[in-house]
């Protein structure tokens, strides 16, 4: 990967608790690399919904987010997960600062589809806020919660947004050199379960249309293609592999490169 801003999306089983992700991020930050971390935490959200007796529903891979569900989403993502990651990174010597899309109206969104409830699609990213934090030597850690935008103004309503999409939009708006998706699979797989080392735009779209790329990999690939329009190079890799992030950013052949 080239020099410049790198956006790293972590989530699911790669939230840094049992892998080297936080160590890699902290070391890369101390070495002077400009990083923005975006995180999800859907598995933990589902567990907390269960604790509160709220049943989880999904439509086309997106969490249906009613008012009661939204409260748990915001509490878990912008609270518990975000602050655990920030504390862990600061404990490793990084100058991490936690944000959600509500802070400074960093992420603005419109409601995606009525049947999804309080689920948003990104309409704007405050590039200046992130650039200011990076210039001051901070490592921003962004939870995938946005504020609703209506008629060009912020309404004050929070929205749940897919974290892969957030990462892609942040990378695109920042003109990031690199975007890394840390997952619990070795990369993007073909129809026979083999890792595809490189993937171009038209090929990726065809694989999505054919169903070869499916489920949670779809928003990652779509986010990579959106970011590629701005010159960002994306890698999808297994975050459980020791020091996979460092290897990828050093240009070693890890996972799937989408460019």
Question: How would you characterize this protein structure?
Answer:
With 259 residues, this protein is of the alpha/beta class. It has one domain (6-48, 72-101, 129-141, 163-258): 3-Layer(aba) Sandwich (Carbamate kinase), CATH 3.40.1160. The chain has helices at residues 21-30, 42-51, 67-91, 127-135, 163-174, 201-210, 217-228, 244-249, and strands at residues 6-10, 35-39, 58-59, 62-63, 96-100, 107-111, 120-125, 139-143, 145-150, 153-160, 178-183, 198-199, 233-238, 256-258. The protein has an eight-stranded mixed beta sheet, sandwiched between helices. Strands 7-6-9-10 form a four-stranded mixed beta sheet. Strands 3-4 form a two-stranded antiparallel sheet. A hairpin with an 8-residue loop joins strand 6 (107-111) and strand 7 (120-125). Helix 1 (21-30) packs across helix 3 and helix 5 (163-174) runs parallel beside helix 7. The termini are close together.
How are the secondary structure elements laid out?
Elements: E1 6-10, H1 21-30, E2 35-39, H2 42-51, E3 58-59, E4 62-63, H3 67-91, E5 96-100, E6 107-111, E7 120-125, H4 127-135, E8 139-143, E9 145-150, E10 153-160, H5 163-174, E11 178-183, E12 198-199, H6 201-210, H7 217-228, E13 233-238, H8 244-249, E14 256-258
Parallel strand pairs: 1-2, 1-11, 2-8, 5-8, 6-9, 11-13, 12-14
Antiparallel strand pairs: 3-4, 6-7, 9-10, 13-14
Helix pairs in contact: 1-3, 2-3, 5-7, 6-7
């Amino acid at each position: 990967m080239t020099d410049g801003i790198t956006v790293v999306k972590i989530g699911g089983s790669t939230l840094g608790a049992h892998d080297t992700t936080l160590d890699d991020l902290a070391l890369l930050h101390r070495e002077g690399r400009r990083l923005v971390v975006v995180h999800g935490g859907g598995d933990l959200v589902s567990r907390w919904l269960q604790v509160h007796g709220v049943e989880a529903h999904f439509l086309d891979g997106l969490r249906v987010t009613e008012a009661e569900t939204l409260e748990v989403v915001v509490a878990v993502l912008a609270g518990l997960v975000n602050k655990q990651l920030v504390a862990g990174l600061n404990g490793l010597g990084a100058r991490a600062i936690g944000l959600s899309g509500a802070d400074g109206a960093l992420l603005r969104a419109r409601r995606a589809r009525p049947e999804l409830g309080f689920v948003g699609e990104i309409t704007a990213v405050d590039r200046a806020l992130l650039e200011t934090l990076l210039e001051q030597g901070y490592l921003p850690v962004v939870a995938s919660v946005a504020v609703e935008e209506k008629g060009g103004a912020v309404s004050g309503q929070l929205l749940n947004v897919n974290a892969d999409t957030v990462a892609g939009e942040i990378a695109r708006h920042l003109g990031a050199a690199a975007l890394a998706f840390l997952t619990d699979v070795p990369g993007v797989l073909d129809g026979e379960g083999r890792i595809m080392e490189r993937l171009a735009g038209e090929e990726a779209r065809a694989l999505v249309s054919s169903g070869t790329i499916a489920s949670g990999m779809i928003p990652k690939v779509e986010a990579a293609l959106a970011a590629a329009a701005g010159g960002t190079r994306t890698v999808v890799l297994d975050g459980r592999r020791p020091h996979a992030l460092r290897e990828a950013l050093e240009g070693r052949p890890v996972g799937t490169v989408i460019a």
